[in-house]
């Protein structure tokens, strides 16, 4: 999916939800959509400053917060970076991320079995999950086949 088609889909989601998709939010969305993997907020800020020299750290963090709340972007806490969700929509899906510690590639996976097992364990402990992002670190298949 292209960045532009993702933007159109995000605009439609915001319109249905009644959420304001401002110009700055759209710019940050497109910057993220054009990245292959995870990117830090200050790297995004540097790119945003090329479009809007007045952009400040608060500008990028507010936009990222909005994009995360809408489900368009996932925050990767362990590396303090953000990654585009390419299958957002009406659902509020649990997130499982595979993060390569060698090349930085981030793969989003969805395992209903994992989600069910985690929710069952939470229920057993009287815990209600309201938001789920599971991060697993290791080596991707490309890095595993590299000669040493």
TrEMBL record:
Location of the protein in the cell: Cytoplasm
Keyword Translocase part of the UniProt annotation: no
Signal peptide feature range: none
Provide this UniProt record's keywords sorted from A to Z: Cytoplasm, DNA-binding, Iron, Metal-binding, Repressor, Transcription, Transcription regulation, Zinc
**Classification via InterPro entries:** FUR
The answer, when asked if Transcription is one of the entry's keywords, is: yes
Q: Subunit notes for this chain?
A: Homodimer.
What protein family does this chain belong to? Belongs to the Fur family.
> This protein is called what?
Ferric uptake regulation protein
> Which species does the entry assign this protein to?
Colwellia asteriadis
Query: Gene for this protein?
Result: zur
